[in-house]
C-alpha cells in the first residue's frame, strides 16, 4: 500500500475528537493559560493492509497520551494513555474510503475511552 498521509494530520483529528468529548461533559475548552492544562502526544497513528488471496484486512493502530493538570503545577499527574486497534475487511482495493473508515472508527473508540475514564473526569474537576 505504501505510505499514507492524513489530512488534517493525526494531532488535529484526535484533538478535535477529544475537545468534543470534553465539551460534551460540560467543560469549556479555551487556549488560555488559566484553569486545567491538557497536553497530549500522538504515540501511534498508522494504517496498513494485510492481503490474503480473497481480501485485504485494513488495520488501524492509534495510541495517545494525555496530561491533565492545573496550570503551573510543577509535577504533572501521570499520563492517561489510550490505545486501540481497528480492522475492516474489504474485497476490493483498500482505498481512501476504507482507510478513512478504519481510522475514524479508531478515533471514535479513543473518544469513548476518554468519555468513560473516571481518572480523566476527576482530573478535569481538579481532584
Question: What this model shows, in words?
Answer:
The chain is α+β, with helices and mostly antiparallel strands and 127 residues long. The protein is built from three helices and three strands. The chain has a three-stranded antiparallel sheet. The longest helix has 20 residues. The chain starts with 9 loop residues before the first helix and ends with a helix.
Short overview:
This protein has 127 residues and is α+β, with helices and mostly antiparallel strands. The chain contains three helices and three strands; from the N terminus they run H-E-E-E-H-H. The longest helix is centred in the C-terminal third of the chain and has 20 residues, at 96-115.
Distance from first to last alpha carbon? 46 Å
Count of DSSP H/I helices: 3
Global mean pLDDT = 88
Helix content: 25-40%
**Uncertain stretches:** none
The helix-strand sequence is: HEEEHH
* C-alpha-based Rg, rounded: 17 Å
What is the strand content?
Answer: 25-35%
- Strand numbers in spatial order across the main sheet: 1-2-3
Judged by helices, strands and strand pairing, the structural class is: alpha+beta
The geometry reads as elongated
Number of strand segments: 3
What does the main sheet amount to? 3 strands, antiparallel
Amino acid at each position: 500500500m505504501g505510505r499514507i498521509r492524513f489530512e488534517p494530520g493525526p494531532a488535529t483529528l484526535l484533538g478535535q475528537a477529544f475537545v468534543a468529548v470534553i465539551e460534551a461533559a460540560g467543560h469549556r475548552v479555551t487556549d488560555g493559560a488559566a484553569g486545567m492544562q491538557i497536553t497530549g502526544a500522538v504515540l501511534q497513528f498508522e494504517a496498513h493492509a494485510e492481503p490474503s488471496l480473497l481480501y485485504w484486512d485494513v488495520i488501524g493502530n492509534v495510541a495517545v497520551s494525555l496530561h491533565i493538570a492545573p496550570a503551573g503545577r510543577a509535577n504533572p499527574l501521570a499520563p492517561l494513555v489510550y490505545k486501540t486497534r481497528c480492522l475492516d475487511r474489504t474485497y476490493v482495493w483498500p482505498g481512501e474510503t476504507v482507510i478513512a473508515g478504519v481510522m475514524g472508527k479508531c478515533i471514535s473508540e479513543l473518544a469513548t475511552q476518554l468519555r468513560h475514564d473516571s481518572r480523566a473526569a476527576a482530573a478535569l474537576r481538579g481532584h
